[in-house]
Amino acid sequence: MPLDTPPPLHHATNSPTSNPSTRITKTHTPSRASLDENHQSNHTHTVAGGKGKARAQDAILKPEWNHTYNEPFDREEGEGEEWCLICHSSGVWDRTVLPICLHSQFCFGCILRWSNMKPTCPLCLAKIGEFVIHDIRSDWDYIRYYLAPPRLPSCSTCTPPSDPSWATTRQRARQSRIATHADQEQILQFRKYIYRHSLYAKHVGSNAHTGYKPPPSPLQIKSNLSEWSRKITTFVRRELQLWPNVDAEFLAQYLVSLAQLFELASEEMANLLGEFVGGEEKGRHFAHELACWLRSRRERLEDYDNGPWLQYGTSTSDGSTRRKRRRIQEKEEEKEQGSREQVAQRRSRLLDRLERERALLFCK
């Protein structure tokens, strides 16, 4: 019989830097009075450590799941199965709780990858905090995983050296950054142009000379998920600078999930991507460009952009316009040809009738 108010999850007393994962286990059952006291104190409980040990706050987790914590919790008949909000896979595996906002619709591995890119909750955008809670077996048995702190600049970058050549080196670095920024702006303008005019990258054969290979299948992406996920994310982050209203990090994770289910050239991929980039045709174009990047097997986008194999033809929209005009012209020519044939037939019938009438006159 579950209690009306769940018992608190206590912090470990050891330092979080010694071990990122700490299992908290407690066997006794708290009294009802202590539960009420915890409930009245805004569901927080402070544990004081010894000297040199950090003070922390524990958030009481609402009982959104049953006691089989590492499996998707049971739902009533008629309700759909819960999905991870990041990978969109069926079922949440190793459910992970964010202690600040208490949201828990994430797999442990997914939220770790997410936190490396964005330290906020994918659902409410609240800060994740310095740790997450996972591997929950009961209200008193779980693991607190401390996230890696953000990297700080090294001292060498904070304090310039007294060497006179430092100014020259700094100026060269600044010029290099300006040149790199200009190159990136130029590439983005070119990418915007090809999407605006529907220019598709030309097909490149898969052989040892080009280094290209067939596009990865969903099974291949699953078998080497980390590598393909990195490449897909790299491409999506660059391309989605052209769509500033689209969350690049979310769409990158979403696209990695889709690539494990559908072929890149499939209609399903075009339809689902089109919801974010402006329609099915744009989604098909985006998927085509992504497939070309993955086929190249290049490690850097710069090498791919400047390579000899990336080429674009004429606009497909111009080609379709020319085809439409040609079809209209052919129809008009068919109509004219039909009109000529009709005129010729009428003329032939008229001449035949005149010949018959002339023959009758001669007979009389």
UniProtKB/TrEMBL annotation:
Source organism of this protein record: Ustilago bromivora
Enzyme Commission code(s) on record: 2.3.2.27
Signal peptide interval: none
UniProt cross-references to InterPro entries, sorted A to Z: Znf_RING, Znf_RING/FYVE/PHD
Ranges of compositional bias, category Polar residues: 12-32
SMART domains on file: RING (SM00184)
This protein's record includes keyword Transferase: yes
Keywords of this entry: Metal-binding, Transcription, Transcription regulation, Transferase, Zinc, Zinc-finger
Molecular-function GO term, any one: zinc ion binding
Protein name per its UniProtKB record: RING-type E3 ubiquitin transferase
Stored SUPFAM superfamilies: RING/U-box
Record field: catalytic activity: S-ubiquitinyl-[E2 ubiquitin-conjugating enzyme]-L-cysteine + [acceptor protein]-L-lysine = [E2 ubiquitin-conjugating enzyme]-L-cysteine + N(6)-ubiquitinyl-[acceptor protein]-L-lysine
Enzyme class, UniProt record, top EC level: transferase
Domain spans labelled RING-type: 84-124
Region (Disordered): 1-55
One GO process term, biological-process aspect: protein monoubiquitination
